[in-house]
Amino acid sequence: MLDLDHIAAQRAKRLNQTLDAWKEAVWSPEFQKFSASLSDGEVEQVLSWCPSVEHLRALIEYLEKNGDSSLTPYPRLLSLAKSDRLTPQKWIETKLPIGLKANDVPAKKSR
């Protein structure tokens, strides 16, 4: 079974953020709903891609409000990143800057 407290502690230490913020994020109802359809490995992967707890919150909010609702969150994130020709980590870093709400994320440019 996945130890969210341990992962929260690792992320907090690695990113020099507070443990309380990461614990609050991973135990929030929003994250629990987001991660319910993910495997343990997918949860760990998504958390490792988030450069801050703020990015994790923005990602959850964005995926809840946007994208193909027929996909679960993990494949939806992979699809969004692929469509922008980015890795999922780079997509999170560049498409979900801290401080933006889900509806403020810039729309894709048409080609």
List keywords for this structure.
111 residues, mainly alpha, 7 helices
What is the topological layout?
Layout: H1 4-15, H2 19-26, H3 29-35, H4 40-49, H5 53-65, H6 73-83, H7 88-95
Helix pairs in contact: 1-2, 6-7
Could you characterize what this model shows?
By secondary structure, this protein is an all-alpha fold. Helix content is 62%, strand content 0%. It is built from seven helices and no strands. α1 packs across α2. The radius of gyration is 13 Å and the shape is globular. The C terminus is likely disordered.
User: What form results from the Cα inertia axes?
Assistant: globular
The biggest beta sheet, please?
none
Beta strands, count: 0
User: Which stretches of 5+ consecutive residues score pLDDT under 50?
Assistant: 100-111
